[in-house]
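Translate sequence into structure tokens.
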Amino acid sequence: MSKKRSKAKHASVIPSKFPTEASLLADAKRAKKGLPRLTLPLVDILAETREMMLARGDAKELGARRYKVSDASFERIRLLAKLLGARPAEEAEVTEDRSESTEEANVARERLVEIREQLSLIGEAGGIEAAFFSIDTRRYDLMISSMNSLINRVVRKRRIMPDPETVDVLIKEARQLIEHEQASRLESAGLERERHETMQVTAQLKRMLVEELRHLSKQGLAAFPGDVKRELWYRLDRFSVRSKSKATVPVAPDAPELQADGVAV
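Result follows.
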């Protein structure tokens, strides 16, 4: 009876179900927020993954010898490397969208300032004090809010201002810009959340891959002591000897290349 319990426990810790990209992404998104940042360079993590993939043929033997390894373990690191290979492009796309939004906001801000100045000149010509046309430019959101208030004040003073047709045109343009900017602010907030979430998922994928690599390293080194070739596969030299030059770090022979999408070939 005790043997059955031991066998069941052993089976539960060896991954048998093959992961998918979707399942790994879901795991990364469910991860606890605020975890310590992993400082290992992605290039080193992917290099160690390429070397570890050389040991995939050991999976069956390791499992049979009751090490906590299966072929699904190697599939997991392969897919994690593939996902991480695609993350920089996704992050760049989100950053580009955010930059475009910021540039548009700067153009709109400059134009709103010009409209305020034009309205101030027209108003002062009609006897309205310059202070009436002041706005708060300390922050962009304060400027949009105070500009909206100014437009409402100008509407109330329109009957005593010269050049009413020009005033109407400026008011219309200002309202359109303000409306557009209020919508853009919501979009920018969404882009910022997306950027933050993308970075969090990337960090968690890295953490998941490193944890899996360390697990496989521990199992493989224990299973094949003295096997020089396998030690090169299973040792994580780049993780433990980061201060040394790249030339001094042993590289496993015939390490497979990872394609642009992170797949070992």
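Note: The radius of gyration is 30 Å.
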